[in-house]
Predict the structure.
Amino acid sequence: MAILTPADLPAGPPLDNVTQKKCVDEGKAPDITLLEPGDIILYAPMEPTGFQKTIQSVTSRQPYLPASAAEWTHAAVSAGGDTIIEAVTRTGVQKASIFDDCFDFKIQVRRAKGFSELERMRIALIAACAIKQKYDYYAAAMIYAKTRWPKRFERFPLLSTSRIICSQLVSTSYMETAVASNRPPDVWPEKVVIGGKEQAIKNMDITPAHLSCAPTFSDVTIGWRPLVK
């Protein structure tokens, strides 16, 4: 099975809706041979549901994020091959396949800058250890509230030790790996101006939109290849 090169077809990250639909219609899928354990997989719905539109609307209110970042509504950790670890509303943290949603979502792949292969594998292992942890509806609601009404909710706690959301799964796995390697633990190291004040972006406040442009990660270009040669 031949792997497409960028010269054969425009490659990510990410493909635009028209190009990705063309890939799907032609029976192509993401080239998973380029994925490594610990890579971050971001998803942007081709046709957003009402819930996904709410996520996009909330994240679009962050003035320090590029407008394009708001389209990313879900994040997962690659465990190698087509396997990902993700936190979803119904089942909590679970193992899944990147192929489950790649035909309905645009995909962006990012990799921790400067991390060794072993360190990135640790990111994947920490995420895998969270499997069966329940989804944190409270945290999801608080991210919405803090973004919509920052002054009113800025003092409310967000971290839960027993439940988690998708972007927290990524940021926690990154943070614990960074601490174990004596690296700075912050996914978003720079302070930003919110409401006229400089503030740090806490790892527990990180959303898929933050992960799509966080300076601690670099983009990984993946192509699309035929499912059948």
Confidence is low (pLDDT under 50) at residues 1-13. The first strand starts at residue 28 and ends at 30.
